[in-house]
Amino acid sequence: MAWEPILWVIFLVMTMVLVASNMYQLVCLSDLEADYMNPYETSSRVNAVIVPEMVLHGVFCFVLFVTGHWIMFLITLPIGCYNMMLFMKRKHLIDVTEVFRSLNSEKKNRIAKLGFYVILFALVIIRLVLSVMNHIIDEDDAVHESAMF
Amino acid sequence: MGTENTSSANTPPRPVATPFAAPQSTPFSSSRPVAGPAASAFRPTPGLAPQTAVPLSSSGPVVGSEASGYRPMPPGRYSGPSVPPPPSSYGPTAGGPFPRFPTPQFPSTTQAPPRTLPVGQPVLPSHPAGQVSSMTASISPLPQIPSVPMGFPPQSISSVPSSVNAPPSSIESSFFSSRPNLQPWSPPMGPSYPAARGTFQPALPGYPGRQPNTESASFLGHQGGYEPPRAVSAPFVSHQGGYVPPPPLGAPQGFYPRGQMQPPGSAPPTGAVQGLIEDFSSLSFGSVPGSFDPGLDSKALPRPLEGDVEPSSFAEMYPMNCNARFLRLTTSAIPSSQSLVSRWHLPLGAVVCPLAEAPLGEEVPVVNFGTTGIIRCRRCRTYVNPYVTFTDGGRKWRCNICALLNDVSGDYFAHLDASGRRIDLDQRPELIKGSVEFIAPAEHMVRPPMPPVYVFLIDVSISAVRSGMLESSLTQPQMMVVSDLDDIFIPLPDDLLVNLSESRTVVDAFLESLPTMFQDNVNVESAFGPALKAAFMIVSQLGGKLLIFQNTLPSLGVGRLRLRGDDIRVYETDKEHVLRIPEDPFYKQMAADFTKYQIAVNVYAFSDKYTDIASLGTLAKYTGGQVYYYPSFHSAIQKEKLRHELTRDLTRETAWEAIMRVRCGKGVRFTSYHGNFMLRSTDLLALPAVDCDKAYAMQLCLEDTLLTTQTVYFQVALLYTSSSGERRFRVHTAAAPVVTELGEMYRQADTGAIMSLFSRLAIEKSLSYKLEEARNSVQQRIVKALREYRNLYAVQHRVGSRMIFPESLRFFILYGLALCKSAPIRGGYADVQLDERCVAGYTMMALPVKRLLKLLYPNFMRIDEYLLQISLQADEFENVCKRLPLTAESLDSRGLYIYDDGFRLVIWFGRMLSPDIAKNLLGEEFATDYSRVTLCDRDNDMSRKLMRILKKLTETDQSYYQLTHLVRQGEQPREGFFLLSNLVEDQAGGVNGYLEWILQIHRQIQQNA
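Predict the joint structure of the above. Result:
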């Protein structure tokens, strides 16, 4: 079986989810800023996805580590640590009473993360393509080899 | 529109200027006013006029700019003597002027040269002919005569001394008369002051007309209107001529009026005194700046013994503005550019107290538009206000905030009279008053107005029973009892709330039974969180007010809190601030939910032990409520206080379900809000309940780098439900001029509003940083602001080692010190109990300006003499007892003093106070421990008098009950706690006293100056 390409497809889905989650939070915050949404709704929506996102990122990191993709692991590690730190300090959730005060920093934060995930997304796609190519080449080789004999 | 206003305001000075127009080009208008007066004095030298005229016009533009900006002139200008162009003209001046002007006025002229030199020259380099212009320039910036001599070119110097005191009295007088409407100006400077002010006015930077670009236009306008003044000007012109050769000379004349602080004929000004001539105030230090013998009498330091003084110039310029009790700007001059904002190191913003109590006869008028609907701008939703303009025969009106032309609806139409005013103006309070109330139509209601609901949540744990808290007589209660913790349910949702008038007896009976019911309670736990949730469920349908009476630390169920704050090691570390913020996010979440359902929470805390007010208070902070604190409550002592404050809480005029928004003109925006409320959107404050004791502060920023308008309008709109069930808008409108000068911003600064914002910022800072950093930031901002101010004037004024500050901010330094010594940010662990600190923080975040200032710098009076004088009546009390500086030096051991900070009264008995007085006041107990003695009417004159005083003091400030504490000199630790630690001017516990504080700030200002 072609484990490698399948693994990369899973990574791709994970990154897509992470990108989507960040986009969603960003949209919520912008809506809040533009007064399309009230702080209660915004914070409950944003807070609802924060922990799942962190968990997902953690899993992502872990799987990369386990499967021996060291470079990718190192790339995702800093954000994982950052998330961990926020969580330990109990500052990961948005504070509904002070949303407006932290709005700008929260937005910047999310834009940075979004950028990171988009780059990650690109990397994952490249690796996916590479692995598929490798797989095909390998199979071709195998075919050739079998044909040779 | 703005231009017109301002010009009219300034007109008085202008007349003088007009004359100028004829001979010269318009640009000079700004300078003229000054010149005018001087000119009259100088008539004798008419011949030279022609020459001057030309040069002047060329320099004109320069003048304008100079005048507009009071900024410190670039150092280069000082080089005056060396400047190429001037020298030629100058040469003659130095030697020449004297001989030339043998005329009687001569003395005055002579003086002029010396002084002017510094001033005039700056202009000269670029514009040789700049005398006139130089005058203007010099006028505004160089009030200080004293400084002038130092700067002189050598030649002129010699002449200076003699000329200095020549002060032409005539000039002064003429000056005065020419400007009848000088605005009232604070008096410190004595007679000369007004004159100085006068000069200033014309040059006011902010005024549209003055600015270089607009100048010509405005000037023309004036000319037309002000013909008469010309006569005055004529002399001026001629005089000018006379002075032409020595360009600098012209400037001096302008100066004169200023310089003449002293009555005419008085001796030449001596340096130190002269500093005061300025438009700024100054403190002189000894020859060694910063030394411990500063040569500064601590008694002479400025102190706000008159209490808070609202800035009046603002109100006069825009008489239709709402009263300062509703809205105060930190400076009534809005900076025109970002760079100005960045040089104004104080907060730029406003303090709003939308429901401030208005004295009888000044109530806010209520307007009902009925079916017409409220008149608002289509685009920016501004409410109609006195500053909108009607055009097109009354069919359209222009919004003053966004400048959109709106149609006037048929019902609201009225013709305009010849001057463009509506003929029905006097019947339309909304068009003449800055504050109005509109009855809101149904579309402004999310739901029908709800009846005011009060829910009492009472702690019945053992400590509460013991303290006697339950015996307090509640005045209008409704109640509920919660018994289950984990699975909270409400037995009978509809029946728990009772209508007070119908079931008064039930309520009374319940309240009476409350103490007995829990008489035998030995439960020390408090299930606060679950109770809170239950209360929330009960009132969430209606909204209302929740009053929480808490006596112990919440210890059961959700929202339980730990005992923290005892750990002294946390202090002075980065984790220190954590103690001041809520421990459990539950409280913030609850607060947000309460606000969402329009429930305001007031917390009454009674414990003598740690109750974690930081957490409980959060409920009040985000719901627009407030925290009352009765440390070690005992019903015998504090019953009255609780009763008064509870009654006030329940009966004061309260606005329910309120939202507030502050709109302001294009180009400016409110960015941050500070106080007890929750933000519903970026600029909408959600206030479940508001009353007259709550004020909100906000900060402004400029959206663009440059403001193009000449006036900025602010409109505070509060939409609320009154207790009578009517939905209303309360709208306050105010206008403020835009200025291009930093000096003008400082001049129009409002210490009260600045301190209000300052204290809120400092308290907020203490929630995320160490106390020390909060204090440092206060000090740093003071230093930065004053340094900037110093830079503004130092160059031209030879400030030397003096400390200068604007007249408007003369108490600012002291208040800054008081703020650093106020309970929320004072000292460290041991100085203030954590709970007390938090309560003070929550309280100060909501206090209106006046009360805040009183808390920062309390009233302190000696009353024994008053008590002894039998003939005096209580109403004369104010006159007899003057406020004293808050320092131990004011205390005389033979005296009896009252200290009143608006929250408590402390009566201090001197050790040597005549026993008669003590006996009369305290009866037989006068020798015992004062902590157990209560004051009451002892049936003698003196005692009655004292009680009247106390009554009077408490009546002046109703929002809190001032419990009276008696303290005897030397009775520690009570004396230290109640009084000595509050004497803000004293050095205590390693913290600076007033004098040291000033010296320290002065040193820091000079360090990087």
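The longest helix of chain B spans residues 771-797.
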